[in-house]
């Protein structure tokens, strides 16, 4: 087969396929492609629409493509036929669909235009209808307004008619009552004291309430008439008979009302004894017409058992115990709380009866609580708060002034609680808080004076106690922080009472300042006297040392006196340091107490805080002065003992031994060892007791004095080379110990002394270069050079003349 034939065959196949596809598309289009408006209503899905259009053509193609083997063959055949033969059919379907969609769009646009015109017409018609309705509604509102006005007018007319009718009826009734009152008044207008001609109303026990009401009205009417005629008699002379009959009536009415009131009170008492609350309430209601029932209220309150003399005396007995006993503060507090609770319970019980019986229970409760606060409570407080004399106060073993202050605080606190409890039960408009303050007013006015006197009494008692224990002598001169803490505890208790009795910030600040000043005085006196006692011990040591010096001169008992002086000196030194430490701790305690408890109380008053700070500084100044003097005495004791040890222990051979070799004993001299041991022992308490700048100042001063004492001591000796080594070793020993002082100036001085010792070690010809090469020793070198044992033999004065300039 040639190539032309093959080409023809390959072209014929597509032609046949195309004709087939056209016929299939025409058939499919004529039978299946129908689009309607209903297809687009509801839940429209384009995927469903598209599937309806093409699913008729696609299944055969999909099945052919599913078979992988046949798919490969189809691909191979596709080289001579279209890859997707149904595309023409689908294009025809899509074109037909677009045509139908365009027709549908025109139909929809037409319908929309028609609907738009109909909506415009309906809207115009609706607006016209609304306008007509608004006009109709306005007319209805106008009609309702006219109707409302007519109804209001008719109502007002009816109300006026009703008021006139009511007024007329009231006037008629008033006239009828007035006529009846005049009738009764005329009955009382008979002879004075004649009650036999009165109507049965005034003698009928069943009509007591009515009789009481009428009698009160008659009294008011008669008194008003007398007042009116009395004014007329002052302006019209000679009219002396205008109200004579009414005066008789008033006298008779007063007598009748008194008799009736007494009768009702008697009936009320009888009902009260039988606990007939209904009869009591009836009598109380009638009695309320007599002076607003005041007599009945007071009569009822006055007969309460809680105000019996025996009951009120029992109050003080239960709170204070037997007359010969002195109950503790806690016992009084507990007993008073319990008794006040019983009083509150009694008032609460009476409140239940009062609210059942009396028409105005708050007024009765006011009278009852007032009677409690003005009668029963003062009776108890009078025995509880016996104000002691400030001139001759009771001794501390009997409680002293502090007992009165504690009872005063307990009484005030418990009475305030009672007042609150009574208010919760009910007391009407009574100012219970004011009554409570009035009970304690005489005590609060001079309260601060008693606080200050009490703290002075406590301080005196404490000092007597310490004296009895032997802590107030020079041998027991330590200042105890425990004692100062006790002072603070007294002050804290006093401040708590200041807060209780001084609710106003300004008053509290003034009272707190006065109380704190007492504490400052106590601490100042205690610390100053403690330091002075410790100084007395130091003075005794100085006196004993003078006796030692005198004894050494006369040669009698020098050794025993010296030993006693040393022991006493170290003991007094430690005692003073302990006292100084206690003083510092006490001052810190006071400062902390002021910062945490006092300072904030003083802020409401300008200048109070600064004034207290100045007082605190002034109070500590006397103790500071004693401390400075005592520290100076301590330095004198240390220097004196150091000089004694040097003078007794230092030998001339220590610095000028016969073996003048540089390989001498490297140990410090005995005198140096003894002095350093003494300083280590005696200054141990100083290192513990002193702090901060006080410690630095003391040790610096002591270091300077030691430097001076040692220098003067060494200037008394002559040195050879081995003696120079000994000196240098001693200087090193002293310097090592004094480094514990942490005083750079002292360290520098002893370093200079160490360098100075080299003057005794170098050869004579090397001295000029040593001195000129060390400017720090040049000032003192001239004196030390003269201590060389070869100073004259080596003619050092001439050799060094150029150095001294």
Automatic annotation (TrEMBL):
Residues 90-204 form the Exocyst complex component Sec10 N-terminal domain. Pfam families: Sec10_HB, Sec10_N. One of its GO terms (cellular component) is exocyst. InterPro entries: Sec10-like, Sec10_HB, Sec10_N. Residues 210-465, 472-798 form the Exocyst complex component Sec10-like alpha-helical bundle domain. Keywords: Coiled coil, Exocytosis, Transport. GO terms for biological process: exocytosis; Golgi to plasma membrane transport. Belongs to the SEC10 family. This is Exocyst complex component Sec10. The lineage of its organism: Eukaryota, Viridiplantae, Streptophyta, Embryophyta, Tracheophyta.
